[in-house]
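REVIEWER CHECKLIST
Item 1: Sequence provided? yes
Item 2: Single chain? yes
Item 3: Sequence as submitted:
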Amino acid sequence: MSTDSTHSNRPAVPPGEFMGHPKALWQLSNVEMWERFSFYGMRALLAVYVATTFFGHLGAEANAQASLVYGGYAALVYATGIIGGYIADHVLGYQRSILLGAIIMSAGLFVLLVEDLTWFLVGLSLIVAGNGLFKPNISTMIGKLYEPGDVRRDSGFTVFYMSINLGAFIAPFITASWIATQFGMKWGFFAAALGMVLSTLFLEVAKKSLGPVGKPAEGKEGWGMFFVVGIGALLMAVGVFFLLSESTILGFLLVGIMLALMSYFIISGIKSGDKVQLQRYIAMLILFVANACFWALFEQAGSSMNFFAREFVTPVWGSMEAWQAGGFGVFQSLNPLYILLFAPLFAMIWPWLDKRNINPSIPRKFALGLIQVALGFLVLVWAINNFQNAAGLVPWFFLAFCYLLHTTGELCLSPIGLSMVTKLAAEKETGMAMGGWFLSIAMAQYVAGIIAAIASGGTAGGAHGPAVGATIGQYADTYWMLFLVGLGFGIFYLVVAPLINKLMHGVK
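Item 4: Structure as written out by the authors:
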């Protein structure tokens, strides 16, 4: 028996390679691609479907109510990952956690087909519970395919990242622009559900290549705990359903958890007696605020910008009727497309700048991200104020350019932030810190729903012409405020960047 504690606690990497990487990498990437197809295929239609199907009787308030549902759902999707990670680490192992999550999400997606608001919320609740078991753990599995120090690890994650964006890119074309347009939005959800079923089936295929990686710990191989956790996940779905129905309580809960987590890091830093670590935690928490601000603005994509695209943007192709039936969903493909195109460029730019000693610091990259997302909204305000046609519509390419600026902003902040967390947190608290990072995104999603409700609250659906001027003006007013907020935060972080850098004590 080996006496190497590192190896004894870590299963051997799976045998077999394809294109220089473990076979399991490609198979898990395929699993993730179809799960993301499902997620983004549903996301392209979610807010609009809820507004038109369940809140249509509310008139001008329909989109506002749908935005709140969307924001609550998106917030909980990010918040439950902390629980799922713990279950995989200590109870089920990664393979079974992912399998259980996939099954629950598949069930939830099929429940969405029931045209009743209560059942629809049940479906969303199941998706949230399943996602918590699936999403954080499949990413962790990728890291476990490589030995510590394996130089292929970063490129392996790049392959995985590309599969995510490939699924996100193709999904809106199929679920929204094709199926929803031809057969109705409900059947777009059906296509998303089939994507999740494919993900589950491909997961079973991948298990043959995974070997011992991600299996339950010794003594926990039985399936009894699988069903116990399954029951627990269903009970969690009940709690999610309650929070989706009571969005105000959800807001207070998220704020409370975040304040508790921030207090934990400050107290931990003080108790450690390590002044450097305390100051690094302070810097990390300051950057968490920037992260929350960025995503609150960025995540208008799935709600208010979707409503705006449907009602006030010229169709990219086809008739206005087909456009409103689902064609508008094409804009949901732009962010993953831009990432596929520009992520490799950004990956090369930072080292190139670093060699010339002009690579922006982490706080300045955050500031650049905030400024770019702000400029995206300025583009929309400019288009609304200057380029409306006789029907009250703005040219589609302005919205496409807005998405481009938002994506380049994301590339300045999101991957940099994930790396930042691992560098600033103490090794024993990295998991907690990463949970805090995603919790800040969850809070942002909740706030994004409130913002979207304000922006789109006056949209009554379908009417065009001079009478909608005040309504499109509501978008212009809200997006102008988002521009000012994003620009203000961006400038603030540019100004305080030297102070944050000092608190980081050499972390770059």
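Item 5: Key structural point noted by reviewer: The domain at 13-245 is CATH 1.20.1250.20 (Growth Hormone; Chain: A;).
Item 6: Recommendation: ____
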